[in-house]
Amino acid sequence: MSAILALDLATQTGWAYHANGLISSGSEGFKLKKRDGPGQRFFRFRTWLREQIVEVKPERVVYEEVMRWSSGAAAKCYCGLLAIVQTECEAKEIKYEGVHVGTIKKSATGNGNATKEQMIRAAMEQGFRPQDDNEADALHILLLFCRRLNIPLPHPTK
Question: Is 0.70 topped by the overall pTM?
Answer without folding.
Answer: yes
